[in-house]
């Protein structure tokens, strides 16, 4: 749904930019070479802002897909099934992603009503096919991404991150 809105917004934005750059119709006699320059500049600015908004909408509209490049075939099947079964608390039809997006984050802090976790994962990134996030990195977890409805057999707090560190889920440590 968001991608359809983003495409529509981008189309309208391009039309606005084109009108701003080239005008709606041929210049009228006596209008001068610059005719309504301020309006055209405003249209171009509005159109470019709408294009940026459409790009932002499109970037968040993509569904989250776990990356399984075969690196998990030797892992515990029950643990793999747990990772694969986790759904985002605010989008119950979208996966939290999988082991390739998971980082241990055992330290939890609450400041000013916001939840923060500290990456404590010292496992190598390459076998997991994930980008490196240094130990000690603090990440804010939005309240709608805190997952409290499932146990956690890993023995660690687990945060699921996209490549640009968007938080899909955080599962607290404990429980089975």
Structural account:
- The protein is elongated and about 65 Å long.
- Helix 1 runs antiparallel to helix 2 (37-61).
- Helices cover 31% and strands 16% of the residues.
- The strands form 2 sheets. A 4-stranded mixed sheet has the order 1-6-7-5, with no helix packed on it. The protein has a 3-stranded antiparallel sheet with strand order 2-3-4, with no helix packed on it.
- The chain has helices at residues 2-22, 37-61, 77-85; strands at residues 102-104, 107-111, 114-118, 138-141, 146-147, 158-161, 167-171.
- It is built from 3 helices and 7 strands, in the order H-H-H-E-E-E-E-E-E-E.
- The chain is of the alpha+beta class.
Give the tags.
176 residues; alpha+beta; 7 strands; 4-stranded mixed sheet
Shape: elongated
Rg estimate, integer Å: 23 Å
- Binned, the helix content reads 25-40%
Count of DSSP E strands? 7
Unreliable residue runs? none
Distance between the termini: 36 Å
Strand content: 15-25%
Widest beta sheet: strand line-up: 1-6-7-5
Total number of helical segments? Answer: 3
In round numbers, the mean pLDDT is 80
Largest sheet: 4 strands, mixed
List the secondary-structure elements in sequence, H or E. HHHEEEEEEE
